[in-house]
Design a protein that fits this description.
heterotetramer; A: 452 residues; alpha/beta; Aspartate Aminotransferase, domain 1; Aspartate Aminotransferase, domain 2; 2 domains; 7-stranded mixed sheet; 4-stranded antiparallel sheet; 13 strands; globular; B: 527 residues; 3-stranded antiparallel sheet; binds pyridoxal-5'-phosphate
């Protein structure tokens, strides 16, 4: 077998060194009746590369790849062009096959990259510090809520209706067990966000307000007042960013006063991958750093005084603090963080701003084109690269029908909120730099057809 | 135990003073191929870029006046510089591709390159998690096929595919237990976890709102069955046991433990991080386990990536399966795949504890792990366990004469060999040996884990190391161990040849610098 | 000229004795990340393998009794070992991705990764050279489009795409000249080549059956026009001139040279290896040139791969185009591509000198080069030349105070700066400076070429180096040059920090060991 | 522009250091009238990755990729499965972007690989030594002929009719200029090779006999007698191997007494790539080593006595010997040689033998299946993985028609020998491990249809 270097002769000589007769002598601790004799039934035997490749390719072909057709899905996962050099870097064996950098003298490559990542994320979010990544945006969001609980010693969180419904679900799952209370209701089809209602809800029992920016319907609202109000009540403002490219065009949550900013980093470097692995971004104000979950990389010096980097503040973490840790997370999204950082380094501020404006202006153009169709209305007055259309029919069957025509039209609100009748006509359309004018025309034509 | 054939100096200079790389004898500070590399913040600039983008259409923006006007201050590099920057940084890393990474509990096996190629097929890499299910039948097929493999390999009833790493899998399992208990109105509050457990076990139990208590171990490094039985009772929701355990030993009483816990009304969570030792040899389902996570990034060869991403599917017993998370994939009789989400959960999966991450789990890891399984097949996976265990025992027996091996007397180990620093002199410890191994060209073993052994050294070679590689490793390990026992002062300052000497972790923690800031001098000059 | 910001020791130990890595102070012989690696013949075995193949069908073989029964004796490795083996070996290499490779005449610019990705598209990588032309229209389209770019960039009339590297391109050009002369019944026998020319120039002329004679140079490092004119005559088939020349200078008299050669009935071959200096700025066609090869692996960024493969298309004047090689691609008015091979050559290309390699040239390099051209565009390529020349002049002027720069007085250089070791003391030479640069973390410049300058050092930074990278390089170069002038003894034994110290080339040549053979001891033991 | 790091400010400051005002001051040596002012007309301006990728993908799509359909072409280029790890290795920046290893202290990676390559090639060919690669098989073949001329001081070469016609063309092109004489005639459709005729032709003026093995029609013949006869006349036997995988199944030319063995290495590691880059293999007996063309890597020691590798015997080469060099070759096929070596190292003797037998037996099966079709006859009685069918019609139009049906049926002899009427019905079919049973059936069915 191609991955196994031991030859039969090696095995014999090693057994002799150990002083046993057969491999089964090494499994003596396994009770007889639990020991399997032959290979497990009903599973195929080993296969060569060609056969495996053929099998996997056949499965891959059964999917509609986004790049093969007009594609407008967003809602928490965005299709951006990832430069070829990013994939080259993450395939370097020294990054790909490295362990967590617990031996810093021979892990400066990973560590320095994490330090760069943390700095990039903090600057993008407009906060003081960021960690070395979480699993994804949705789990980062829950971790932020628990962190706010630890800081404020309160357990009432207010979730904006604009928060991604899957993020809400994740929080609800956990809250059921931790007894946190979560205030939340589904969004309304309205150009205005729920900021006003959130302002009204904050009180002295509130641990945090969680606001997505831009929100699930694509809307952008100033959070400054919310931050101020939260502060008055000693509650925290948690901002959630599912599309980090947006922050190349719009003010950062940190600038508006957010205490904790979390997000999904998949847009940069990572790709769609059917939802994972992604990379959770997690930043906050300096003063909260010892309450953060996850790994942190910090600068220090070596015995000769040379600058170097190490994992630090590990007394927050499970491997040191065990049941008192700030989180149970161990393995995070290291390689995705590297991809994020490599992509961000290619962009730089200039490239990021260009990319963001390109996304935005294409989205504006597309919104205008599509809302010109009879039976289609644009809900948003502001948005970044994603907006909500209100159709004069249920959106969900239309999305399915268009998929059969090889047009991936967007995410219907019916898919996201199956139980919310009033949202059924909503269609969230994302437009990135990968969308061509032809794609827009194809969608427009198909939508016209479907609505006629 | 031979030395490398290449690179052996013909003139032996045994008593030569070891040349430390204490200073930079070059102008540049570099040492030939050992090139130091500044941060992007020191070399890049916000107006340089490694991308070319088309002009944006000429339309008014609709950003409701929230344009970002302040500097973002993320520097850019040209592609040429970016590639060199990260290539240079990568060269300061140790990794499996560079050499043996015998980290106990981490299963750092070879990551096959076919996996990487398959994960990049556009039909897997370029699909959106919210595409209509008819357009992602192949992706759902991958999840389903992988689930089938996991179920058959473990002999369990069901599997939850969404957890994003081992710890997330633990959380999934514990939430299943809690949901099952709550479903029968049984609000138990305690989870028992042995001291030898990985930190994620107690942390997870706490994260899910449980109190954590210890399970005593016996002198053989295993769960003390009688002591455990004595502690069981109506307040105990369950136990978390690692098997093979973190001392590298199989728990022979596992079935008895399970029976006892079940009898007491609790559930058995098994930490499956060490599944590599028994894959294809033992099915956890035959041991009465209720839930077990599997680190695809260990047993099933998905790359560790310098810290992640991982993937931690959880196999479940019949009792716990109804409580598993959303979404999941179901296969209809006609081969069509459905996605069970909140919408139809009331019908299809009414007891689910809910969603634990936004989408369908770590698809990019699923494609890799499935590729790996198909490559090995049932026969190959069995061979994996056997070779992993063989390699570990070979190391154990080759070094037990020189190093203290606390449980070696009790019989063979599984996939990892446990040693301690007992007998080191002159104040030398496990840490010093580890750093000495760095100079020898190896990644150190796991240090100071499990906690139950003082100065623990946990060595897991995995099955993808050749006999020659292991012999060389043993030779180096023996040599450093001898020096540690002899009290060799120079080990205290090892490593001597790595890109950095020992790093000051205390300073890092006392005065945390977690992001780069403009040095004062520069900042002033810029004003 | 600043040092790297990172890695600067805070405690400066200026007078420290430079620690040489003279011995292996470790048991393994490794030095942390610097791992020595044996040969596959020492670690592999003929019965190990890193592939799994299905069983062959059960049929009788038809090998006419010629079955290979004796051992082939090529060892195998598992994939795990193979990947590690070549990864470790790769880490002993310097390369553009690792740092500056300022090799004059070699144009070691960044190799964009998009090129690599495009070359691997199955529509390019997985097509056979003898597929029916209707099934490879896209491939012929690539060749045609690249040909169009080359013609427009050079202002020439035609282009031969099949030559496989620069030297092969030279051969193509010389054969065109010879065919053209023979076509008019003119059997000239001499090709004039300046002493400063690259070795391939005279070698090619000889390989094609010509006698080679020298063209005198003037004190400015250029062709002596009058001396050349004096030598021209009815025996001279042509001249081979490099422009920009190998001293890094543009030949200002190029047009006059061409006119003179043409007047004497000869042809002008231009070595276009240095086209990077003038791409988009000057068209060789405007200088009267008849044939010029273009190293796609220099100017157009296809990777050098540790020695190849390259690609050397040859642009041709109207006079020479009829003689170019087969096969080639022609575009019909309707956009359809035809392949002109022997079959239709009588009609389509009757004067062709024939085929010079089996198939259509270096397709894998064409896709990369075209990707590069499309990325840069006409504007970007002009910028390439300007930045390449700017970087070289910046180096020239930054170092001419410390290093002898033989032609610096005569004005700016083009894409490379020429220095010499005049003024070094204590017997130190260009070689010693080069080896000193290795310790500084740089690939040395080209040494002892061109031959016309004693102890030549030819420095070509290319346009893909940043100002910061060049400033650091200058700092290191200056420091080593100062040491060479001061006669620093330690330079004689540099490099000190590379994977190997200086290698004994004399022994290698005197007693060539070109293949591995079983060491005697082993061989005996095996008997 | 993404590959160019200089900023406008950098350029200004560098011009100032140089002491000139503008970039054009650095181009003063270019005569005014030859200097272009703006970008060259009629060529596109720079473009981003997405646009370039779209352009190249559109071109790639216009080709029939072999992997997308039944595929049976050979005749000097073979489609083998290349393991994924081979491509990973050749993408390592330290190999991909390295220069020729003229500075051995920092090029041991390339050099040791070349040493391994040379040894593998020599062992595969059954000769003493091999060089570090040539451009491809066809140019290596001509180099071998010139080498024989240098050794024997004779200029009459005899080319077997079984030599690849393109190799013959290349030799003829060169011989026109070098005045070598080449005896050659086109092959006959016959199970027997031309060995007998070659034996008869050798005389005391012969410098070499050049025999392809297996030959262009797939035939295999013992060359031992030829080697002996050549030796009698002090001529050399040059063997040409276009399918190195064959040597996992059949005796090596060296074992039969060949003096020089050259070949095309593309089968291992390199892939089809429409004909290039490929990798020329070149081996010979030890005594001729100083007459070899191309680079050679040799073992030596460093100043500390450690083993190391260098390029050696360079006094044969152009950069030292100039017009007296054994060849003008400089850049060779380094990275392809690495791919060859990585692939060969994965195989090992065991894997190579398996692979060879798999190819052979599949070919036997296919030959039987196809020759069962009425109107199809199998010419060969022996072959490795390639054989010649004689159809009862012109093969060339059939190959084209089948390509339109997305079946790539083989190479017609009409394509290879357009002027040889008697060969027009010949079809050379290659069968490698990549051919499935379904592929064979598809070809059989299509052939039946075309011949009906
Ligand atoms: C025994 C054990 N349990 C659990 C874990 C946690 O897994 P992960 O890091 O994937 O969250 C690990 C991994 O380090 C482990 O070794
Ligand atoms: C000036 C010059 N001419 C010709 C060549 C030969 O090109 P190649 O190595 O591609 O055959 C080179 C490359 O080294 C060169 O620098």
């Amino acid at each position: 077998m191609r991955y196994l270097p031991l030859t039969p002769a090696d095995r014999q000589s090693m057994l002799a060194t150990i002083g046993v007769d057969s491999i089964d002598d090494l499994f003596v601790d396994v009770p007889e009746q639990a020991r399997l004799t032959g290979p497990i039934h009903d599973l195929p035997m080993h296969a060569g590369e060609m056969a495996v490749e053929a099998h996997m390719k056949a499965l891959a072909k059964k999917n509609h790849a986004a790049g093969d057709m007009p594609f407008f899905l967003g809602a928490g996962a965005y299709r951006h062009h990832v430069p070829a050099s990013v994939d080259h870097i993450i395939q370097r064996g020294e990054f790909l096959t490295a362990y967590t950098p617990y031996q810093p003298e021979i892990a400066q490559g990973t560590l320095q990259t994490l330090f760069e990542f943390q700095t990039q994320v903090a600057r993008l979010f407009g906060v003081d510090v960021a960690n070395a990544s979480m699993y994804d945006g949705s789990t980062a969001c829950w971790e932020a809520i628990t962190m706010a609980r630890r800081i404020t010693k309160r357990s009432k969180a207010i979730l904006s209706s604009g928060l991604h419904p899957h993020y809400v679900s994740v929080a609800r799952t956990m809250a059921k067990f931790t007894k946190d209370s979560l205030a939340y209701e589904a969004p309304r089809v309205d150009a205005a966000t729920d900021i006003q209602s959130l302002l009204d809800q904050i009180d002295d029992e509130t641990s945090c307000v969680v606001v997505q920016y831009p929100d699930i319907l694509g809307r952008i609202a100033d959070m400054s007042e919310l931050a101020a109000r939260a502060k008055q009540h000693k509650a925290l403002l948690i901002a959630v960013v599912t599309e980090p490219v947006a922050l190349g065009a719009i003010m950062s949550p940190g600038e508006m006063g957010a205490d904790i900013v979390v997000g999904e980093g998949q847009s940069l470097g990572v790709g769609l991958q059917f939802g994972g692995p992604y990379v959770g971004l997690f930043g906050c104000k300096e003063k909260y750093v010892r309450q953060m979950p996850g790994r942190l990389c910090g600068e220090t010096v070596d015995a000769e005084g040379k600058r170097g980097f190490v994992l630090t503040l590990s007394t927050r973490e499970q491997h040191i603090r065990r049941e008192k840790a700030t989180s149970n997370i161990c393995t995070n999204s290291g390689l995705c963080a590297l991809a994020f950082t490599a992509h961000m380094t290619l962009l730089g501020e200039k490239g990021l701003r260009q990319l963001a404006m390109l996304n935005h202006k294409k989205a504006v153009q597309t919104a205008d084109r599509l809302s010109a169709i009879s039976g289609v209305e644009l809900m948003n007055d502001s948005f970044f690269n994603e907006f909500t259309l209100v159709l004069d029919k249920d959106a969900r069957p239309i999305v399915r029908a268009l998929a059969d025509q090889r047009i991936l039209a967007g995410v219907s609100l019916g898919r996201l909120y199956p139980d919310e009748e009033p949202l059924a006509h909503g269609l969230v359309v994302a437009v990135t730099e990968t969308v061509s004018d032809d794609d827009v025309e194809a969608l427009a034509t198909a939508l016209e057809g479907a609505l006629a | 135990m031979s030395m490398l054939a290449a690179g052996r100096p013909t003139k032996q200079e045994e008593n030569l003073i070891m040349p430390e790389q204490t200073a930079n004898p070059t102008h540049s500070g570099n040492r030939a191929l050992m090139v130091d590399e500044p941060l992007i913040f020191e070399t890049g600039s916000p107006d340089r870029s490694g991308v070319d983008l088309p002009d944006a259409p000429q339309v008014e923006s609709r950003l409701s006046g929230l344009e970002r006007t302040s500097p973002i201050a993320v520097p850019g590099l040209s592609e040429a510089e970016m590639v060199r920057h990260y290539t240079r940084l990568s060269r300061q890393n140790y990794a499996i591709d560079v050499g043996l990474v015998p980290l106990g509990s981490c299963t750092m096996k070879h990551n096959p390159r076919l996996n990487e190629k398959m994960a990049r097929l556009k039909g897997f890499a370029d699909i959106h998690p919210l595409q209509p299910v008819e357009s992602v039948q192949g992706a759902l097929g991958v999840i389903n096929e992988l689930a089938m493999w996991l179920i058959k390999l473990t002999g369990m009833h069901g599997v939850a595919m969404t957890p994003k790493a081992g710890a997330h899998g633990e959380l999934c399992g514990i939430l299943c237990i809690r949901a099952a208990l709550e479903a029968r109105g049984d609000a138990r509050e305690v989870i028992l976890v042995p001291e030898s457990a990985h930190g994620t076990n107690p942390a997870t139990a706490a994260f899910a709102g449980y109190k954590v208590e210890d399970i005593p171990a016996n002198s053989d490094g295993r769960v003390d069955l009688e002591a455990l039985k004595a502690r069981l009772g109506p307040d105990v929701a369950g136990v978390m046991i690692t098997n093979p355990n973190t001392c590298g030993l199989f728990e022979p009483d596992m079935k008895a433990i399970s029976d006892a816990v079940h009898e007491a009304g609790g559930f058995v969570y098994c930490d499956g991080a060490n599944f590599n030792a028994i894959v294809g040899k033992v099915r956890p389902g035959d041991l009465g386990i209720d839930a077990m996570h599997i680190n695809l990034h260990k047993t099933f060869s998905t790359p560790h990536g310098g810290g992640g991403p991982g993937s931690g599917p959880v196999v479940l017993s019949e009792a716990l399966s109804p409580y598993g998370p959303l979404p999941f994939t179901a296969r209809d009789a006609d081969g069509h795949f459905r996605l069970i989400e909140e919408e139809t959960a009331d019908e299809d999966h009414p007891h689910s504890f809910g969603r634990m991450s936004a989408f369908h789990g770590q698809m990019g890891m699923f494609t890799r792990a499935l590729t790996y399984m198909l490559s090995h097949g049932a026969d190959g996976l069995k061979q994996v366990a056997e070779d992993a265990v063989l390699n570990a025992n070979y190391i154990l027996r080759s070094l037990e004469d020189i190093l203290d091996a606390p449980f070696a007397h009790s019989g063979p180990c599984m996939h990892e060999a446990l040693f301690s620093d007992k007998g080191f002199t002159n104040g030398l410890t496990t840490l010093d040996l580890a750093k000495g191994m760095i100079d020898e060209g190896y990644h150190p073993m796991t240090m100071y884990f499990p906690l139950v052994v003082h100065g623990a050294m946990l060595v897991e070679p995995t099955e993808t190391e050749s006999k020659a590689a292991i012999d060389q490793f043993i030779g180096a390990f023996r040599s450093v161990a001898e020096r540690a026992k002899a009290g060799d002062e120079r080990l205290k300052t090892a490593p001597h040849f790595a890109p950095r000497r020992r790093l000051d972790e205390t300073q890092a923690a006392r005065n945390p610098k977690l992001v780069w800031t403009e040095p004062e001098e520069f900042a002033e000059a810029a004003e």
